[in-house]
Amino acid sequence: MSLTFNHQTNDISNATGTVTFNGTAVGGDNTPPVWFGSRGVFGGGSRATSTNTMEYITIANTGNTTDFGDLTTARSVIASNCSNGSRGVFAGGGEQNTIDYITIANTGNATDFGNLTVARGYMGGCANGIRGVFGGGFDLNTIDYITIDTTGNAVDFGNLRAATFAIGALASNTRGLFAGGVADGSEIQYITIGTPGNATDFGNLTVSTTYITGVSNATRGIFAGGAGTPTLNVIQYVTIDTTGNATDFGDLTVDRKGMGGCSSGVRGVFGGGSRTVNYSDSKTNVIDYITINTLGNATDFGDLSSDTADLAACAGD
């Protein structure tokens, strides 16, 4: 077989026969699985109280969000960034173990997927297009995983390097990265998503932070915002398959923590968040975007329907 894989576009060309990627058969169009797409969906979060609202954007077109439907329960400090390119998953939140799923192309309410191994919020979520992984949670080092195409309860994956929460996450087709959090706000750690096991040290963020948000394409990971002293507008990046410290990327339009993040593979989008460490009345509806492969400051995208913090997002087609 003659095989070429383009990490920027996720295309496999000049391939014949059955194609596998990381041991998993891929689509009939000879492309590996993806965890991003053209539509971004934001779900849950904190407004006056926790919300079950979901709303969506078309990532290539700036503008305000449109109503998508409702999660099965209202909750904040929820995790997502978890998709197989068509199905999106939202997990946990507060003291809930609920996992919901949606079909990203079809507006409507979420459906029950199963349960986490431990009820919790403040996790980081990521996916490689086949498997979704959720790490951390309030005073926990737990990592769970699901197979996104198959409903059911999460299974134990391994452990983070320390119990932590308010952690950010992102992934490539092979690795999942977790960064920041209350245990060591400067640490980045990684797992191999296809192989259950404990996390390994990756490097350090440019600045120590909690409530950070991650987005990615197949090669580059972006971490943005977070709670320092005070909240941060910092955007930083890593090459996911190469261990090392993060590098400065640019700045958000507004400093904030607890955003929802999603990606088209070209653009990364960050929505909502809180502009003070203790919340008070500081929630925002701001949506920013970046071009993942081009360093620079974020640009205004539009607005969420309401000021919302501690929400989550995923993307697909």
Could you please describe the fold and organization of this structure?
The protein has 317 residues and is mainly β. It has two domains: 32 residues, no CATH class; 284 residues, Neuraminidase, CATH 2.120.10.80. Helices cover 0% and strands 42% of the residues. It has no helices and 27 strands.
Low-confidence stretches: 1-29
What is the 3D shape? globular
Query: Strand order within the widest sheet?
Result: 7-6-5-27
Spatial separation of the terminal alpha carbons: 29 Å
Q: How many strands in all?
A: 27
What integer value in Å does the Rg equal?
17 Å
Structural class: mainly beta
Strand residues, percent: 35-45%
Q: Could you please say which CATH topology of the largest domain applies here?
A: Neuraminidase
Please give the count of helices: 0
CATH class of the largest domain: Mainly Beta
* Largest sheet data: 4 strands, antiparallel
CATH evolutionary superfamily of the largest domain: Kelch-type beta propeller
- The second-level CATH architecture of the largest domain is 6 Propeller
Helical amount: under 10%
Q: What is the typical, i.e. mean, pLDDT?
A: 90
Number of domains: 2
